[in-house]
Amino acid sequence: MIPYSRQTVDEEDIEAVVAALRSGWLTTGPAVAEFEEHLAGFVGTEHAVALSSGTAALHAIMSALGLGPGDEVIVPPMTFAATANCVLYVGATPVFADVERDTLLLDPREAERKISPRTRAIIAVDYGGHPCDYRRLRSIADRHGLALIADGCHALGAEYNGARVGSLADATAFSFHPVKHITTGEGGAVTTGLEKVAGHIRSFRNHGIGTDFRARQERKTWHYEIDFLGFNYRISDLQCALGTSQLTKLPRFLARRREIAEHYSRSFLEHRDCLVPLALRDGVRHAYHLYVIRLREEEFAGRRSSIFKELQERGVGVNVHYLPVYLHPLYRERLGAERGLCPRGEAAYEEILSLPIHPAMTAADTDFVVKMLLEVLERNRRGASRG
Ligand SMILES: *Cc1c(COP(=O)(O)O)cnc(C)c1O
Questions:
Q1: Pairing label, strands 352-355, 291-295
Q2: 170 vs 245: CA distance, rounded Å
Q3: Considering Cα of 127, then 131, then 134, then 135, what sign does the dihedral take?
Q4: Cα 331 to ligand 1 centre (Å)
Q5: Averaged pLDDT for residues 82-89
Q6: Ligand 1 site: residues with CB under 6 angstroms?
Q7: Does this model's pTM top 0.70?
Q8: How do residues 121-131 score in pLDDT, each as one tens digit?
């Protein structure tokens, strides 16, 4: 089975973790700070704070903004649930704004339409690795006095008008889960240009304690104070040693993901009557966490699950990203969300497939995916005999 994504870990990565294991620091030690410095440098911003997951990173940002009950945060429905769950964690309310039909990115007009007197922030999701329209989102956020947050978990290495995701919003969350661009096993980070946000999050990941153990040891003191309610969202030195090693390979990983995407796009050009890849805007560099196609409704209405199953049976690990978040029972119950809230997201959900894309795929693998996909689509076309 060719999975839709997976980690690429080599001997160098393994040696880096072993070296950290021998160093004497297992939890928050020098490898965490080193990883944070490299990550901030890579995305081109002042601060990076590493945490135990991308979800913890999102939660930390909500806390740093001081959001709570009565506050609203605008989020797109086509994302992993963590984007909206983090709003619930702090007792605030996620408000879903529809996506653009051809990119499945948050539509700035829809975001603006959903702004109310309670709105405090917008979370932009760089779906699949395609950066959002940050210029327009920034101008809307500024005009209404809102924070612009990015869920960049799909988009490490993506660029918008020459600047990297991670440097474009007030704060950006990344994930280092094994399916993402680089991995630390589990892990995440916030990048931000705002000193105050970074400082808050450093405490937030450690129970709200302002100083870390190493700093206290250097100052020969046991005394610490808890300033606010934080969590244990620390990441370990072992994980960050892996992260720093992975970061050195990120340019290569990105180049390989882009090559695979170009190969797919070229192969599908003459099959536009069956499928359409998501659109690519001018001025962006896509990071291709996902390669998403839409099946033509006129040809395949109601057949997506059969197509999915047949591809899986042939060893092609396709996936579907995502059921619109508000259609999960949790959101139906909590928010009373109903079908029809974001019609473009809902329509897309019926038609999308994510094709395998990750650096370890060979040219033979991509050829195999294209061949199997076209075969399975031919069998499932309207009016085809499926014997
Ligand atoms: C992976 C992901 C997250 C959460 O990351 P974890 O590290 O798994 O907690 C959040 N948002 C999006 C869009 C993601 O893809």
A1: antiparallel
A2: 27
A3: negative
A4: 18
A5: 98
A6: 53-55, 79-80, 82-83, 125, 151, 153-154, 175, 177, 188
A7: yes
A8: 999 999 999 99
